[in-house]
TrEMBL record:
The protein's name: Imidazole glycerol phosphate synthase subunit HisF
Organism: Methanofollis liminatans DSM 4140
EC annotation from Swiss-Prot or TrEMBL: 4.3.2.10
Gene, per the UniProt record: hisF
Keyword presence, Amino-acid biosynthesis: yes
Transmembrane segments: none
Amino acid sequence: MALTRRIIPCLDIKDGRVVKGTHFEGLRDAGDPVELAARYNEQGADEVVFLDITASKENRGTILSVIERAADQLFLPLTVGGGIRSVDDIQQTLRAGADKVSINTSAVTDPSLIDRAAARFGTQCIVVAIDVRANPVMQEGKTPVVLADGREVWYEVVTMGGSHPTGIDAVRWAKEVEERGAGEILLTSMETDGTKEGFDIPITRAISEGVGIPVIASGGVGTLEHFYDGFVQGKADACLAASVFHYGEFTVRQVKEYLAARGIPVRL
């Protein structure tokens, strides 16, 4: 039987509230995180991601009280990211009720954190989030990715909520995090985040084909077809979305029924 594909609502959290922006900017309030997560629980979401989006910039820890409230009320896997810098932070987050933790900036600044975390908690708990942006100037040693218009670019890893370019090749970094023990990759393209124009298919496919661990596509869903494209063209194992769920454009159930009707194996 084919592996079921997952649909994951993502809740970006700032000051204890869910927010949504475009290209990580212009944030609007979208509600209480636990109330929203409970709604997605009822709709049949496969898991929920909580991302404390300003924790790294503000140099503080993640939102343990929100995690505890959510874990008490939810019956689906909970992934938490934002401001997680150490093995101790990971332990606190898991202890508060998260099933997995997502590390991003801290993994780039200290790649050995992935090894240590995977060794201590198991690869299934460790998600490495990779935020990327297309760099149009090809450089020697970078992995070329062909866009829809035929141009070759390379994708650069960015950190600090997309504001800090690192010079790191995204495809190579994805392979490295897998080798270091990441159990999953959460891939967000800054090119498409919040645009509702669809996932960034070229980089999603390049990374999905380049690693053997699940890849979650993130950034840019606006239509039901975009989910389908993420799975079929992007080769993703899961599709993550935020605003289309928060503002009631689709329910998780609607997305899954649409996908099932088009032959994508989902848990209904």
